[in-house]
Amino acid sequence: RVIRKFPFIPGIDFSGTVVESADKKFKKDDNVILTGFRVGEAYFGGFSQYAKVDSNFLIKNLKNIDSEKSMMLGTAGFTALQCSFAIKAREELLLGEKVKDVLVTGATGGVGSIAVMILSKMGYDVHAVTGKKDKNDYLKDLGAKNIIDRKEFEGESKLLEKGVWDGVVDTVGGSSLTKILAQVKPNGIVASCGNAGGIKINTTVMPFIIRGVKLWGIDSSGSSIKRREFIWNEASKLVDFTKLKSLTKELSFNELL
Question: What strands, in cross-sheet order, belong to the sheet with 59-60?
């Protein structure tokens, strides 16, 4: 239901060097990154040696980020960065108290893993939620202070529970998000970016009107160019690329299938 026409080149992101440009903003040999904009879905994607795209989709000449590093992050890393800055916004935009305790669900996934790393680098105490007990050391190495079994967020929730989290990066959605919203502290922020646990939440207005909780949707595909440039230029300060390299696998085109 995603791909509507065939043959088609998939790949939701890419980076590389400009060979030819009809837009004065770009010249030959510029380094560029593309994520989102429905590339790999509505437009031919990144699993190719050459790509021809709308120049409005591209970011160029980033500080300290080459093609390899940008694709170690890719869409998952870009989404994790967006989520992390949404959490940080509690301090900057809302002029609230300092963020301390941040919950990350789906913490062993692509977005979750990188979010754990970034939020830890930002100085927050990261509480990583996972159902994979064999991944505890992996998450601690990324910077998680505490590991929580995802079963803790199953079952019925009260209208409001004890406020525990200053911020939440939720990659899961579904019923667990209902319980999490009831546990967010006053003026806390929940950055929602995934639906691995389902697309529906059954919540109430209470967290929002009694505690002023913010549910912040993250749409990495449709972000503005200005926001993309800011986030990509911050990446080198917040991501440990040595650790990320160990999570990265390189494939030839023949191995892609």
Answer: 13-17, 31-35, 59-60
> How far apart (Å, rounded) are the C-alpha atoms in residues 224 and 57?
9
Torsional class of 183: left (φ above 0), alpha (ψ -120 to 50), beta (otherwise): alpha
In angstroms, rounded to a whole number, what is the distance separating the alpha carbons of residues 248 and 82? 21
Q: State the distance between the two ends of the chain, measured CA to CA, in whole angstroms.
A: 19
Per-residue pLDDT tens for 52-87? 999 999 998 777 889 999 999 999 999 999 999 999
What is the amino acid identity at position 77?
G
Token output for 195: 């639906």
Question: CA 122, CA 80: separation in Å to the nearest integer?
Answer: 13
Q: What is the mean pLDDT of residues 29-43?
A: 94
Region at 127 (left for phi over 0; alpha for psi -120 to 50; beta for the rest): beta
Q: Find out whether 228 and 56 touch, Cβ atoms under 8 Å.
A: no
Strands annotated E in 20-86: 31-35, 59-60
* pLDDT tens column, 186-240: 999 999 999 888 888 888 899 999 999 999 999 989 899 999 999 999 999 999 9
Give the torsion sign (CA, 31, 33, 37, 43).
positive
> What would the two tokens of residue 49 be?
């040696």
pLDDT band at 154 (very low <50, low <70, confident <90, very high): confident
Of 79, 85, 112, which is closest to residue 221 (Cα–Cα)? Answer: 79
